Structures are given as C-alpha cells and as structure tokens.
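Q: Fold this one first, please.
A: Sequence and structure below.
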Amino acid sequence: MKESVRLLRRLGFNSVLQDAKAWEDLEERCQGKEASPYVSMLEYMQQEIKENGMSHEFMALYMNGDNLYPNIRFSPPVYGESVMDQKGNDGKWYRYWSEKAKDSMETQDRRVGCFGSIP
C-alpha cells in the first residue's frame, strides 16, 4: 500500500478519493470505538497519503454495498427501505425518496465528516 501511494504521487496525483459507504463499523469508529480492519486500513492510507504530500477526500455513498456482506465485509451495511417486485418479494433496491433514506443520507454525511477528523 505504501508503494501504491508513492506511485500515485510520482504519477502526478495530488489527492486520493477514499470509499466511504454506509457501514456500521464507520459509525462505530466515529463513536470512539476500536477501528475494524477495514477502517484501520482507511486510516493507515490517510496517514500515508498525508506523508506523501497529498490530500484525501471521501466518496459518500448511501445505502449500497450490501452485496458484499457477509462474504467480503464483516460489518453490515446500513440498510434502507427496499422496493418490492411484482410478486411482493424484496427487490434489493432502495426507495431513495423515503424518509428512512433521507435520514440515512444525512447520517452518512455526518459520519464521513467525523471520520475525516479521527487522528
């Protein structure tokens, strides 16, 4: 990872966009709890990015990534309100216009802001 960050700098990049999906472990870290392996790596990357004279930003994604859980990610995503298919089954998509979705998005924005300030 260190070499990858150095390579980005040598290639002329001045900033790195980090993934910040709505996962429970990101919320837990903002509450002062121990970092999960995933969050630890994000924090380690931030340190390396800074040491290489670059900045980092976050891609605040809402209500997605649930296809990764539990096989790849061990912390569950923040689930939204799902739509139903014609047979009444869970459509595996989200009603982004719902109040639950709106609340989730606002919470994720605060979460990303908090995460950027963790030392």
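Q: Good. Now the second chain.
A: Here it is, same layout.
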Amino acid sequence: MSNIKLRNTYKSYTAIFVIGILVGCICRLLDYFPADTLWSFSSPQTLFGFWIITNTIIVMLSTSNICAGISSFLYMFGMTLSFYALQAILGMFIPMFSGGFRFGLFILFTVWSIACAIAAFILYYWNREHIFSSVLYSLPVGALFAETIAVFIYFLEHQTFLFQLLMDIIGAVVFTIIFFKKVNY
C-alpha cells in the first residue's frame, strides 16, 4: 500500500472518481440482495463502517490534506452519483430497479460527501509529529469499534449482517495495528 499514493494531480483525482463510480455501481447492485439473510450483502454501504474504512484508506494514501479532502469528496460523490444514476438507468428496463432518480437522497449524500471531505482534510493532520495526531488516529478506530459492538449486538439478536460485522472487525483491527505503530506518546 505504500507504493500507491494519491497526489494533487488531475490523473489521481480522475482515478479516485472512477473508483468511486465503480464502488457506487457495486453497492447499488448489492442493494438488491435480500437484507434478512445471515450475510446481508445488501448492508455494507448502509452502515458507517464501510464509509469509515474507505475514507480512512483514502486519507492514508493521500500526500497532503488538500489531496485527502478532494480525493475523499470525489470518491464519495462518484459513489453517490453512480449509486442513484444506476437505479434510474436500470429502472427504465428492469422493474426491480424502478423508482427513478432519487434527487432528495442524492443531495443528502452529496452533502455527506462534503462532510467526508472536511473530515479527511482534518484527519490528514495525523501525519504531524504532535500528541494531537494520536487523537486523530483514534477517531476512525474508535468509530469502527463502536459500530462493531452495535452490529454484533444486532447480529446476536437477528442473525443478520455477518458480512458487515466481519468487515468492521477486520477494519478496526487492521487500523489499530497500523495506527498503534504511529502513535506519539
């Protein structure tokens, strides 16, 4: 992962936008899997863990706070655009996808994309040699552990969301290991 870097270039921003579009299409198609199964493949993009993991990876790969913010926005906006556009396009041909373009939700998640960009801009400062950087490291890890606990409780009661639970656990453990090595005491 250290060889892959997001830079403040048109090429890098285009690549992350295209990745966002592809991920949005995959998430839209996964959304049509049944939600009430053990694995619940339709759930990953509906909970915060997926967003935290992908945006944390973007921040880790970025070369500046501006790059982190712009890349996060482009990824999330590309994902949002393709998620809702794919439903509208497929809905013209396949009844299962009917419902048209959900403009209200598109605007809502575009605003969330801006919020993610601001968070990524701030989180990039974890690269500075300061005690405050340790607090920034703990934010995505703490949020993932909190969601892991909530999803685990839900999993015990309903026997669903196993995929989300495993993704959150793996993300939290991997980020804990990576960030623990970087903590400033």
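Q: Anything worth noting on the second one?
A: The CA atoms of residues 92 and 173 lie 43 Å apart.
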